[in-house]
Amino acid sequence: MAILSCFTLVSLAIEVVSGFNSIDQPSSSRLALSQRKSTGFLHLERRDGLASEGIKIDAGFWYADFSIGGASNLSLLIDTGSGDVVVNPGIYVPGKTSKKLDSTFENTYGTTSKDGTGSATIVGDLYSDEVTFGGLTATQIVGSANGTSLLPKSGIVGFSGQRFNQFPASSSATPFFQSLCNQKKVSECRFGLALSDDGTGTQILGELDTSLYTGDLVVAPIIENWVLPGDLVVSGEVQERDLPIELDSGTATIVGPIDTVSAIFNATGIQGVLRSTSDGDLLIGYFPCDKPPTVGFNFPSETNVSLAAKESSSTISNKSSTFNIPLNSWPAVDNGNNNCTAVLSGQNYKAHPGLWVIGQPFFQGLYIDHNLENGTVGFAPLKGANPGSTTTPTPIGDATAHRQGVWAILVLALTLVAVTM
After folding, report:
1. What is the domain range of residue 300?
2. DSSP label at 326?
3. Distances (CA, A) of 26 to 119, 140, 165, 166, 349
4. Domain total for the chain?
């Protein structure tokens, strides 16, 4: 899990009470891993300051082709839950501008298993070199691993904010996309992920590609890159509000607090089984494969909608929309005899009480715009996606649920401060 700095308290309080600004400071990160091979990637488009490249899913995670230094065609995991660029032992080939830094790294990653649990520690040396994606090149701090623990395929590229970097502060490392922005290599400081449910997708750097989605982009403010408040919606009704939700393309599942997930399971007829793991208790659900439930999240949260209306914000959407977990994403495992393991599970993160981690199954069928300049995330259905995936909920008007959501965000902030002291 990401361990955020004490500045999170300020950011979270601003978000809940009055505004949409985020604070971006370096700290640590998390990701999910995969070990299977993938096929190649389809090049789509290159223009000055823009890149649009095909990406593919493999074993629940998304990969794209990158060049680092003198090594090309590297299959790297796209992870919005971490901030560093790391390649496996023997992968890195110094380029013409390569410079070895007098520094090493030790990154610890969480959610390394397909069920959202597990961890791994990667160690190695740091270099300054060029990293290229879709014709866009940035001078970047790169980690070359030399330990026994491995990342999937060639390695990973983190697309989170700088707060989620784990490289030593002395390296002055920034996430790859932030480097592109800082070095003015992109037309706009934003990137998009358009992931379909057929195993193919597109990553867009430097623009909002309106040709890939339908309707209006639903825009919500972030707390951190890429954590934002959202409302939990079950069967069309809001159950809890202002939950801290992390959008993490490097996680293969959707994970929420055990008590909340247990209530969802009870309400939707999913059989829950609580298991002990090395990372603590894990609540797993089983359901008839042909009867997936309807569970989703409101963005922006209704609180943020009200704040946007009061401040006459032209950036944040003035109405909440519900984006449901795609029905075909619910079976994480088909156990046979019409019994499936649910993609939703319950786990309590001690350092981050109340946190939801929404992995890539939620991304499928959506265009998700990550706007660093405005500090927002935008959502819209992909063209050709199931038109029923986006609905307007019926709020239950439960003030208790709202208070619980705000309390979870404030407790999260206070806990993060305690962890970093």
Report:
1. 213-420
2. P
3. 20, 16, 6, 7, 20
4. 2
Residues 30 and 93 in one domain: yes
Give how far Cα 205 sits from Cα of 76, 172, 178, Å: 16, 23, 11
Contact 61, 116 (CB under 8 A): no
User: Quick check: bond before 226 cis, omega within 30?
Assistant: yes
**Under 8 Å between Cβ of 19 and 376:** no
Q: Using CB atoms within 10 Å of the CB of residue 337, give its burial: 0 to 12 exposed, 13 to 18 middle, 19+ buried.
A: exposed
Owner of token pair 């019994």:
339
249 and 172, same domain (yes or no): no
My answer on whether 48 and 95 are in the same domain is yes
Residue 140 has pLDDT above 70, yes or no: yes
**Closest alpha carbon to 370 in 214, 178, 199:** 178
Output the CA torsion sign for 266, 272, 275, 281. Answer: negative
State the Cα torsion 3-120-245-34 to the nearest 10°.
Answer: 160
pLDDT (tens digit, 9 = 90+) per residue, 76-92?
999 999 999 999 999 99
In the listed set 167, 200, 233, which residue is the last one of a domain according to the structure?
200
Residue 195 CA, chain-centre distance (Å), reads: 13
Domain membership flag for residue 316: yes
CATH number at residue 186: 2.40.70.10
pTM summary value? 0.84
Boundary of a domain, candidates 200, 234, 268: 200
